[in-house]
Amino acid sequence: MRLLVTGATGKVGQAFIPAFLAEPRFADWDIVALCNRRTLSPQSRIGMVTGSVADRQVVAQALEGVTHVLHLAAVKETPDQAIDVALKGLYLLLDSFCRSPTRRQFMLLSGDCVVGHIFQEYPEPITEQSPRRAYRGVYALTKVLEETMIEQFGVQEGLNWTTLRAPWIMEKDDFRYAFELGDDQFGGPPWSSLIAPAELAALREQRCLPALRDKAGRYLKRSFIDIHDIVRAMLAALDNPVAFGELFNVAMDRPVDYGDLADRLEAEGHQQRCDIPTPFHSNWLDNSKARMLLGWRPEIDLTSLVERAWSYRRAADDPRIVWYPG
User: Fold this and answer.
1) How many other C-beta atoms can be found within 10 angstroms of the C-beta atom of residue 75?
2) How far is CA 259 from CA 1, 168, 263, 271, 300, in A?
3) Is the N or the C terminus of the chain less surrounded, counting Cβ atoms within 10 Å?
4) Residue 157: Cβ-neighbour burial (10 angstroms; 0-12, 13-18, 19+)
5) CATH 3.40.50.720 domain residues, the chain
6) pLDDT band at 324; cut points 50, 70, 90
7) Looking at residue 38, what is its pLDDT?
């Protein structure tokens, strides 16, 4: 078997490849990594093709002899690249793969931006049957179109496709810095869009933990997942017939309650909370289908997520990386 991984040098790709190579079930498989701006160090069982996923010749070269595709390549709020990478690139991969005599499965990593995560309101847990409601911006739009495109290739070409839809993916100390009020904040939206400048300066001075409240005034609930668990979900779905033609939400069993998080951190002496009103909606990404069909369940809960993030210490050669602009 031969697995093509796009986005192999990104955050998820760099976690997936070592786990894949160490998994006994895939001991006789090889990897082809399609890389563009960054490359991988030479490794046994890994070949590399360099170029853009939006280049038909590069895609054809990368797909030679490939039985499975794991599509991780993505760009965020960069409209000049989004159409080429997210839509043209995916179309070329799907179109070429469907013409291949060796094709077996095409797997896409999607995100909860497709359902608007905290920007759109859902009155009940978000399942795979919930309507897609992207928030504003090109990234969420392209993810909606990606999910739709792969499903239609299943309808039109009989493709065995699988989509894993993940919420905000955490690794190392990401979770801690998602709540930092300073310039080292990880992710968004920027605090300056929620807090007046004078108040923000005071809260930064106090090193407060922003405990967000949703539009209804309750503490915000938002889904997360640790990178260890998303990799386990991908391994569980890969070459698994029960995953063919299926979309799965892969998230923690419960969304993070920002009030519970503040309680934990205050009790442990880390930080004191500062309640921040927001226009956001509390949502719950339901992972029941993945647990039932894939036999997968997340291992990292809120307690583990906090322990990992607040105890992690970066070495000099382990800088924080913003994987995508925007």
Assistant:
1) 21
2) 47, 18, 6, 13, 19
3) C
4) middle
5) 2-170+223-249
6) very low
7) 77
Position 322 confidence tier, pLDDT thresholds 50, 70, 90:
low
Interhelix angle 11-22/227-237, rounded to 10 degrees, is 60
Which residues have CB under 8 Å from 135's CB, separation 6+? 113, 116, 117, 119, 120
Cα–Cα distances in angstroms (integers) from residue 80 to residues 83, 87, 138, in the given order: 7, 12, 10
- ∠10-165-236 over CA atoms, to 5°? 80
- Mean pLDDT over 269-297 rounds to 95
pLDDT digit string, tens, across residues 120-156? 999 999 999 999 999 998 889 999 999 999 999 999 9
What is the distance between the alpha carbons of residues 264 and 111, in angstroms, rounded to a whole number? 28
Fold of domain 2-170+223-249:
Rossmann fold (3.40.50)
Q: By percentage, how much of the chain surpasses pLDDT 70? A: 97
